[in-house]
């Protein structure tokens, strides 16, 4: 089948739309998986890392946008099988919105330094830093407006510091998986 047949009217190949849709579903499924720990965490960030490293920053950005939009319209794609605008508007919504910046930052870094493993890891780490920054700013604003004043250091202590090590492990495993799977699929 020729490439022209596999394109929609805006010239996005159907295969790209499939990668984006499957990736959004992967992020949703991983957001439902909770790893018990002193501070429990989900595999949502892991999925965003895998998706970004595997299908690239452009498709990865569309996949994260699709995931966020599905959640905003009320589908239970967020952690704990939740969804709706209220989740985004709540204190932790900034971390979800920050995921949109992760593949964008990854694309910026890898466009400058190439797609070797160290630059891919640096791009994902820089993207996660964007998630932390956007999420923490949002948390401080949303939490302070609904539950009382909170400092940036308190927000970091609750929402970032406990997750740095697990996120670093997720990043390493996601990069390993993405590098292995890339050899098997047509991108």
Secondary structure layout plus pairing:
Blueprint: H1 14-32, E1 34-35, E2 41-42, H2 44-72, H3 85-89, H4 93-98, H5 101-113, H6 117-146, H7 152-159, H8 161-182
Helix pairs in contact: 1-2, 2-5, 2-8, 5-6, 6-7, 6-8
Structural summary, described in words:
This protein starts with 13 loop residues before the first helix and ends in a 5-residue tail after the last helix. The relative contact order is 0.13. Strands 1-2 form a two-stranded antiparallel sheet. The longest helix is centred in the last third of the chain and has 30 residues, at 117-146. It is built from 8 helices and 2 strands; from the N terminus they run H-E-E-H-H-H-H-H-H-H. Helix 6 (117-146) packs antiparallel against helix 8 (161-182). The protein has one domain (3-182): Orthogonal Bundle (Arp2/3 complex 21 kDa subunit ARPC3), CATH 1.10.1760. The protein has 187 residues and is mainly α. 71% of the residues lie in helices and 2% in strands. It has helices at residues 14-32, 44-72, 85-89, 93-98, 101-113, 117-146, 152-159, 161-182, and strands at 34-35, 41-42.
